[in-house]
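Chapter review: from sequence to fold.
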Amino acid sequence: MLPKVINKIEDGFSFRKYIVNFLKYSLKSENGFKFFWFSLDLVASASFFALKNVINHYIVNGSTVYSCFLDASKAFDCVIHEKLCSKLLDSKMPVHLVKIIYFWLKNQVYNVSWDGILSKTFVPQKSVRQGGVLSRYLFNIYMDCLGELLDNAGIGCRLGNNYCNNFWYADDLCLVAPSRRALQRLIDICLTYVQNHNIAFNCKKTVCMKFSAKGEASRMTPDIRLDNYVLD
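The token string follows.
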């Protein structure tokens, strides 16, 4: 009965609003305008608009932009509860709220429906609930340190003094850099982080593109790698 009560709390407007506002102001990534997945008011089109403008800035100035669109495999299902709660505590969330979230995560129950047959209920050892009101915000905190690492890497595309090398929407990530070597370094940073957080990138669905000064987009020659896999 208690887990169902927690789910109702999670769906409650006041609780959700408090948690969302807290998360929005506790992000470590400095260039927050890139992280459209953290905002309730911005949609995917805003992220694409920002990405397009960064690429156009380089093209207009006669430079080439190398990009990589990383696809995370079932990222929401791979969130480790203990690491997530540790990050929430690091962000100064009140301990009693972290305990509520941890209890809720550890007491979720699932069923699998296959050809009209419903499986027995089971308790997942990791993941945030698909479709949950707070799930995307909790996942954002789980991945925020990666955004911070990329921001502080000192490589990739930038506007003025701000590095604009990573663009997000939910679990989709795009990296942009003015050289192949810089792009490879950004990919390596991402790979190291996700390996420590139980998340894997789908190499077959991850693609690279080159935007030339002529305004033409094309696939790059296969010399960019993700965990020793040559990307298309």
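Two observations follow directly from the output. The longest helix spans residues 44-60. The CA atoms of residues 23 and 137 lie 7 Å apart.
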